[in-house]
Prior knowledge:
Blueprint: H1 2-9, E1 16-25, E2 30-34, E3 37-39, E4 42-43, E5 54-63, E6 66-74, E7 83-89, E8 94-98, E9 103-106, E10 118-124, E11 127-133, E12 155-160, E13 164-169, E14 173-174, E15 187-192, E16 195-202, E17 214-222, E18 234-241, E19 253-262, E20 269-273, H2 278-282, E21 286-289, E22 295-297, E23 309-314
Parallel strand pairs: 4-6
Antiparallel strand pairs: 1-2, 1-5, 2-3, 5-6, 7-8, 7-10, 8-9, 10-11, 12-23, 13-14, 13-16, 15-16, 15-22, 16-21, 17-20, 17-23, 18-19, 18-21
Amino acid sequence: MAALKKTLAAIPAGGTRRVYGTAYFDGSRWWANLNGNLLDAYWANSVSPQQDGPIAVELTEQGNGQSSALVTDGYSDQPRPRTGTVLSVGITEIVLTGADGITYTTSRFSGSYMVGDPVYVAWDAAAPIILGKLPSITPTPPTRTPVEASPITPTGTARAAAGKTNTWWGPGGWGSWAESKQGGEQVYSGTWAGSTVTGSWFYGAAFTNLGSKTITEIRFRLPKRLNIGGSGSATVHLYAHTSKYQPGGDVNRTVGPWDVTVTQGQGAHWITLPLTFAPVLKAGGGISITGDPYVGFDGRLKDPQSGRIEMDWTA
């Protein structure tokens, strides 16, 4: 609870701060999981939580050491599609592709459907519900010589901002170094005064629905470099790590390094990551920086788009 206590202590009496976590059901009651701390919270009536699903929580400091938490909603990086097309029909499940180009599976539907049917879709947390078929209009075909259509390969771009950023320092753990303290979530890498730190971005399950899609390009938004360490340009070492959410210890880096040069005080900008990062990201992993020189970057609280990822894909 140490990190959560520091977060609460940073909120002035009567003030409210929005934090992000996941929903957790223990078999009898739902809890707000904030970085491993299970918090008893109020839940807005519109919230339909799912196990480990991302949630937004408003923490209010009521004074005299009292505080309350309200789960205002679940969230996702992009809005859920309201229409889709049936890809396959099973006995208890239907597979459909949404208007966003992403494939979903649901056991929640009424009526009967055939492959190719256009359908209305509603959402309960991250679960799609098929409400019915879209009406079809059959136009009168023009009189002309038919031309064989070329096959169309589905393409799209999956996008997600980091749901968590932080710095790991061995003696103190997560959020114990420089401006990452008290829930600041700034991101550092390298060695300073004999202490070595690493920084990471986490995305939860944002990209796990890409399945077998082929990734053709990965773009990563490297945030503004902090004015710390030595002057001049610095070579930053980026890795892919395997954690959906912030673990108890440092992350496990499995791909990298991918080195990029960042000038002193350089603002946020996009860089292209190698496609070898794709399998780790599709499995729920994230991005980490480690190694010298000593550098720091804005986390998601200073820059909500810190570490944003965009992945172009084809079916």
